[in-house]
Amino acid sequence: MTNFLNHQQILDKCERINEDYEINPEVFDRILDDLLNTEKDTEEVILEGFQRLLSEVDHEIERMEDFSDMKPNCFKGCAFCCYFPIVITRMEAKMMFRSIDAFDEERKRTIFQHWDRYFNQQRGKLQKAYAMDYEEPETKLEYKKMNLPCPMLDPETQLCMAYEIRPIPCRTYLNYSDPQVCAENHMPKEPFSYEFLYTYYFGAVNELIQVLYENGEDVFVDYPMDAWSYDYLPAWIEKWREGTLDEA
User: Fold this and answer.
1) CB-based contacts of 37-45 (< 8 A; 24+ apart in sequence)
2) What is the value of pTM for the model shown?
3) What distance, in Å, lies between the first and last C-alpha atoms of the chain?
4) CB-CB contact of 238 with 119 (8 Å)
């Protein structure tokens, strides 16, 4: 029988992380140093950096879990957190779409066909979602109540169609308690978010783009404007599909 952590146990372990665990920013810096010292072309450096820095967030969470003796109970096919609002920058969106464009043809075709169906079927919910102010604290719950899936969620397998490049919010929401709490609540109190790691990840991504930009490289983004323009992931996808992603 699995022994799930209760809410107080999770809080206690997280408090220990807050008090005693020290994040080493050098692990992110080393990725930048490695990439900026290669002979790879600029786009390859950016996309490899994007994916490696995303993965480093996963590794940092694993280090914190080892430190606090916690093991997540999230399981393959559980898509609970795929119904939360995902807000990213235009810069991240462009890197995500460039990465998807590098997928094999069959995988891309599957994603694009899914998007055709998704944006037709979810039009009403999407209009309501786009009208929500993502900075308001009540938005997350109201968005979740709409039962609007992420456009990257495969409705048949309940798996992410771009798992390796999924955004930070998708990586940092984990449940160490009974998975049933997610099935029974829109926003259960038990799961824990490591979204504070976004600061380390985005700081490194921004530094990578900034160095390349200042060196006169073609960074395929409008820097620095794209770094500070935020919106919902479905909205960025629609703009990309319409060819308006570069419009202010």
Assistant:
1) 42/212, 42/217, 42/218, 42/219, 43/98, 43/218, 43/220, 45/208, 45/212
2) 0.94
3) 54
4) yes
